[in-house]
């Protein structure tokens, strides 16, 4: 079941599994286009596999109808953290959610947001980063980068990347892996040959790679089974 809930001025796309639960839950951070067909499919697949999935609209501060390429330019880390925190608190108040089994994930800029959420809130017991770029950069005056804060993460990290990507490039992926290893964090990284940026996003057919995409889905649900369902 999918529905929209309002948290103040922020709309959240919510997909829920059948049955009363309680279920583990995921905050889903969107890619640049926002809450589109791909993000709705992500939340639906999570719900079909037994997870309450909430995708907050990080663009809610921007003018309605603004092009997402423009909206993206105004995304400050402090605002993203506030929106993730509001979504997290809403999930924790839902009777069908296991409050001790909440994770966060995202694709593209959402992958960076997912890492940002994981370093900001210890409630997240798992993080899945799908080719999140620019994690070494801070967005907002006086803010540290997500990469510099990986020691705060309170759970395993799944990383899904394309070897033909340029942001994050294989060198960027290695820098993230090295930082997690140095911080003593559990990680599971997978990088696919023949795949570049957004290879799982069917809304961009020129980039979509079905075989690699479905394998990545399988790896995600195995990871979540180990981290959030046990």
SSE blueprint:
Elements: E1 2-7, E2 10-15, E3 23-29, H1 37-48, E4 52-56, H2 68-72, H3 77-92, E5 97-107, H4 109-120, E6 124-130, E7 157-162, H5 170-182, E8 187-192, H6 210-228
Parallel strand pairs: 3-4, 3-5, 5-6, 6-7, 7-8
Antiparallel strand pairs: 1-2, 2-4
Helix pairs in contact: 3-4
Features:
alpha/beta; Rossmann fold; globular
Written account of the structure:
The protein has 230 residues and is α/β, with parallel strands linked by helices. The protein has a single domain, classed as Rossmann fold. Helices cover 33% and strands 23% of the residues. Strand 3, helix 1 (37-48) and strand 4 (52-56) form a beta-alpha-beta unit.
Domains (count): 1
**What is the terminal separation in angstroms?**
24 Å
In percent terms, what proportion of residues is strand? 15-25%
Class by alpha and beta content: alpha/beta
CATH superfamily: Alpha/Beta hydrolase fold, catalytic domain
Q: What pattern of helices and strands is seen along the backbone?
A: EEEHEHHEHEEHEH
**Oligomeric state of shown chains:** single chain
């Amino acid at each position: 079941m999918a529905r929209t809930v309002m948290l103040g001025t922020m709309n959240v796309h919510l997909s829920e599994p059948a049955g009363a639960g309680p279920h583990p839950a995921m905050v889903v951070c969107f890619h640049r286009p926002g809450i589109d067909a791909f993000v709705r499919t992500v939340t639906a697949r999570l719900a079909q596999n037994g997870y309450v999935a909430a995708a907050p609209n990080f663009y809610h501060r921007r003018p309605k109808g603004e092009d997402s390429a423009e909206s993206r330019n105004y995304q400050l880390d402090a605002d993203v953290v506030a929106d993730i925190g509001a979504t997290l608190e809403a999930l924790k108040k839902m009777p069908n959610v296991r409050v001790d089994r909440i994770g966060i994930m995202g694709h593209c800029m959402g992958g960076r947001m997912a890492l940002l959420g994981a370093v900001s809130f210890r409630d997240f017991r798992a993080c899945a980063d799908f080719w999140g770029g620019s994690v070494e950069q801070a967005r907002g005056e006086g803010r540290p980068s997500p990469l510099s804060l990986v020691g705060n993460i309170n759970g395993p990290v799944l990383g899904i990347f394309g070897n033909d990507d340029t942001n994050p490039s294989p060198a960027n992926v290695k820098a993230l892996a090295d930082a997690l290893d140095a911080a003593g964090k559990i990680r599971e990284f997978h990088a696919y040959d023949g795949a570049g940026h957004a290879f799982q996003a069917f809304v961009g057919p020129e980039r979509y790679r079905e075989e690699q995409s479905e394998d990545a889905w399988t790896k995600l649900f195995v990871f979540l089974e180990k981290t959030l369902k046990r």
